[in-house]
Amino acid sequence: MPSVVDIRVLSRSFTIVGVFGICAVATLGCETVEGPFPSRPIDVVTHASPGGGTDATARAMLVGAREALGVGMAVVPKVGGGGLVAMSYVSTRPRDGYTLMGITPTHLYALARGQAKLSIDDLVGIARAADDPIVVMVRADSPVETLDDLVMLGRERPIKWGATQIGSVDHVAGAMLAKVADTRLSVVPFGGGGEIVTNLMGGNIDAAGLNLTEGLEQIYRGDFRALAVMASERMAAIAEVPTTVELGYDVQYSTVRGYVVLKGTPDDRIRVLERALLQGLSHPTYQSYLEGAGLDGGSVAGAKEWSAQIQQMYEEARHAMRELGIIENEGENEGENEGENEG
Q1: Could you say which of 42, 80, 228, 231 has the lowest number of CB atoms within 10 Å?
Q2: Any idea what DSSP says for residue 72?
Q3: What's the Rg (C-alpha) of the chain?
Q4: CA–CA separation, 310 vs 76, rounded Å?
C-alpha cells in the first residue's frame, strides 16, 4: 500500500491585481513576497490507516478544498504511536502552509504525556471538521446486550477493548468508563478505526468505542449492536441508543477531528487555508458524508473556535490522564501503560 495517496489537480490560472498581499478571487490564493500561495500541492498528514473515520473525513473534505485552492492536495498517512509518528514527521516540514496535519484528541493525549517533539503551543487551528461522539459497540450476536451487561462481564474477566493505539481517545474513554463503573478492561491496540471494525466483526475483541463514521453501516446492517453513546444527548441516527449519562455513567468522549498548521506559518497563508477548508467542509460531498455518518453541519467550525477547543481538549486530556494515573504531576509521565488497564 503506498504511503501517499495523491490526487493531483491542475492549478487554475488567475491574475493578481495590484501589490503583494491581494488575494486572488478565482482560487482563494494570495500573493506574498515569496510568490502566489498556494502554487504547488499541499499535504494533509494523518495518523490513522486508510479506512477509518479520520482518513474518510480528510478525503471527503479535500474534494471541495482542492476546488477552492486550485492545487492538488494529498492525504499522507503517518501511522503509529498514537499520533507521535505524524507529529514527528510534521515537525520536520517547513512552516509554510504546504503541510497540514489532521488531529484528534489522541494527539493531545500524546502531547499531555510529554512524548511528542511538538508542544501544545506549536498547534495553530485551521478548521474543525467533525465532532463524532464515541459509541460503545459489540457484535450483534454477543451475549452482551446492554452497557450494564458489559460492566458485569468486566467484573468476571477483563473486557477485550479495541482502541486506536495506547493513549488514544478511545483507549482513555474505555479506561475512564471502567474506572467509573468499577469494572476491568484490557486494551487491544490497532492502527485505526478500520482495523477495529474488522477485528470486532471477527470476534477478536469483546467491544470497542467506535464513531458513527466507522460503525454506522454495521449497525444498520445488523452486524454490530450499539450499547451506549458517550455523550449527554442521544444521536438522531441511532435515537434508540441511550447515553452513558442517562445510564448513570458520567463518561463523555468524542473524536473531534480538525486541521492545524504549526506556529510560524504566515498569517496570510493561514487565512487562505481556513477559507479553503471551510469551503471544502461546506461542499455537498462533505455534507453528504456527514449526513451518511449520522452527523450534521454543526460539527464544522473556523480557526478561532477550533483553536480554543484544542486548548480546552488538551487541558481535559491532562485531567483524564491524571485521573487514570497515566501522569502524576505536571510534565511527569508514568510509562507506556501498555497491557491490561483496570478501572
Answers
A1: 80
A2: -
A3: 20
A4: 22
The owner of cell 460531498 is 285
- Kindly report, residue by residue over 133-187, the tens digit of the pLDDT: 999 999 999 999 999 999 999 999 999 999 987 778 889 999 999 999 999 999 9
Q: Is 117 in the same domain as 147?
A: no
Q: What would the grid cell of residue 50 be?
A: 486508510
Q: Which three cell numbers stand for residue 93?
A: 516540514
Q: Note the pLDDT tens digit of each residue in 256-279.
A: 999 999 999 999 999 999 999 999
Judge residue 302's burial from the number of C-beta atoms within 10 Å of its C-beta, 0-12 exposed, 13-18 middle, 19 or more buried: middle
115-128 in b/e burial notation, b at 16+ Cβ within 10 A? bbebebebbbbbbb
> Residue 64 belongs to what domain range?
5-132+255-321
This prediction has a pTM of 0.75
Show the beta-strand stretches assigned E in the chain: 5-7, 30-32, 35-37, 42-46, 73-77, 99-103, 123-133, 135-139, 159-163, 184-189, 207-210, 224-229, 254-262, 340-342
Residues 6+ apart with CB under 8 A from 5: 50, 74, 75, 76, 77
In whole angstroms, how far apart are CA 159 and each of 144, 146, 150, 183? 11, 14, 8, 9
Task: Give the domain CATH number at 143.
Answer: 3.40.190.10
